[in-house]
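Weekly modeling sync, notes
Attendees: S.R. (lead), two postdocs, one rotation student

Agenda item 3: backlog of single-chain predictions. S.R. asked that every request posted to the team notebook include the full sequence so nobody has to chase files. The rotation student volunteered to paste the first one in as an example of the format we agreed on. Action items at the bottom.

Example entry:
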Amino acid sequence: MKTIIRMMREEAAGEELWETLHREGWIFLEEKEPAPEEGQCLVITDSQEGVEYARQRDLACLAYEPAGSPQHVYGADMVAEELNELNGEFLKLVWKRHKGLPWTIAITEHLILRESIAGDLEDFYRIYGGAGITDYMPGLSEDREKEAAELEAYIKNMYRFFNYGLWTVLERATGRIVGRAGLENACDPETGEPVMELGYLIGKPWQNRGYGTEAANAAARYAFEAAEVPRLYLFIKYGNIPSRKIAEKLRRQYPGKIRIILL
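Predicted structure, as returned to the notebook:
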């Protein structure tokens, strides 16, 4: 069951969204009516009262806060400045975020990029332990408990706050984890300004299949289309020839949007 509890002070807001959700088969409940125990249920609200209602009942919550609004709401799973541009697929992402379920970022010809989960860690150790993998990048900590705690904190904070990060790359045909790719916050080494960094890693057994290019391109597309980033930075060690080749392909595909910095 796909259910919306609408708690809006500004009744005129989101008219197009409500029509879209109605066509998609979502059910609307009256304000403060008890929510069903099963299915996808969300509170959409423009008030702190609505957020508190959702939190007390452990319901997913999308807060509407138009640009320039003097009042702010806190504690919602996600906040939107515009409602009419949203749809049911976006609300499912809000629900997943509340439930701690990973988002699928991209599905390409051979790969799936999704948010990492705690259970991915053993595969990460296997991949990072491959010959030559850490020649040009840091490895994982020998303290697995520490690494697990850091991954858990990363999943909880990075994805929830930014809706991007370093993701897990899976092979579509087998479902096996083959690498990592995604977006990280970084600084321009010349100006010190905050920038978006694109990174990618494919495990040794799956290299030379075009997976690195495919994963990097999917991450770049998400950056430009979903995150609306104007430019991506790639920081590459000078001797990392395979990574440089992928970066050059991206620069040709996205002219003026890719900056390569050799270290």
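Discussion: group reviewed the output briefly. The CA atoms of residues 232 and 258 lie 5 Å apart.
Action items: rotation student to repeat for the remaining queue; S.R. to check formatting next week.
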